[in-house]
Amino acid sequence: MKVLSVNDAAFRKYGRVVTNVDFTELVQEMKKTPVPEGVVYEPSVEALEALPVMQALSDTVYGEMPIQIGYCNGHNTKLNALEYHRDSEINVAATDAILMLGLLQDVEADHTYDTSRVEAFLVPAGTAVEVYATTLHYAPCGVDGQGFQVTVVLPRGTNYPLKKEHVRAAGTATDNEDCLITAVNKWLIGHAEGGLDVGSFLGLKGKNLDINE
Q: Which domains, from first to last, does the chain contain?
């Protein structure tokens, strides 16, 4: 799979490189977090949120909104699913990592999406990117079989368990997004080969992409 750089012009429709915040301490603290064989996601980590970057991100990137700082670490080479939020997500790479991305605008009226549209981008270690709310994304991938450590910054409460019942099968209305919501502020489109929980909407058409293929 072709992998571009987040510094490439092709990345601009998906996000931007964040240069107005100092992430040095955050990257150092991230080096202490575990890197499992699979993939682990922690939405809020006290040690990361205790750093000065917490206030800096809230003030300058999120316009004083309450935020959470967690991480997604592990080993991964496949797409498996794509998700989106109603707000931008900040990813800070403590190691080299690859993001596979798509555009929400390309999701069909029946909530399906062709994986041939996905593009892959390398986020070099120490680099932070803003992934726009209109960008489809999921777990990062490692580089050359190595594990990855990526900080995930989102509005406070995102990715926590839902408090209400939501439709768990695709409806007939073209605006029925409810079948995609799997957590607070999280809409998910899975692949049949992605190993997702029962009930997840499996709307990704085409190959379950692998960065090594």
A: 3-159 (2.60.120.10)
